[in-house]
Amino acid sequence: MNRAAFSLLEIIIATAVLAASAMVLSSLIGLGSKYGNRAEERTIATSQAESLMDECLAQLANANDPMAERTGELPGPPRRGFRISTTPFAQGTFAQGTFAQGTGASASDSPGEGKNRSSSLLRITVEVFETGGANLNGDTRPLVRLSRLTRTAPSTQGAIP
Fold this sequence. Notes:
Layout: H1 8-62, E1 70-74, E2 80-89, E3 92-95, E4 98-101, E5 121-129, E6 144-151
Antiparallel strand pairs: 1-2, 2-5, 3-4, 5-6
């Protein structure tokens, strides 16, 4: 028998394979678009968080006391909220040849000196959220969280002039 054309069954099978492949490809294109949009949102949020961090560092350089926690909304079409918090950072140091957590003493200090000095580091945390500033609570997961340690001005409380 001489076959010069495809049978109806072969055409149906080829069409089914082509349709299944098209469905898989279209779902992959949809997922790629979804993750691409999410990456773009995170990139913009990271840029906004870095700007907020720079503003916070500039304010700390001009003022000696750390600012309290601050929340608000960022301008722009995607309305996003932010939270900036500053906390003292307890650092581990070496005192008299042993590791002393958060004492503020160093190996060069003589015994009994410097053990009650406060930490000179401050942790600044900037978080950017998808929701506005009024909707921020402890359960809200941030799009971006940046933390940075910075030096604070030495405390002059209790110092003898």
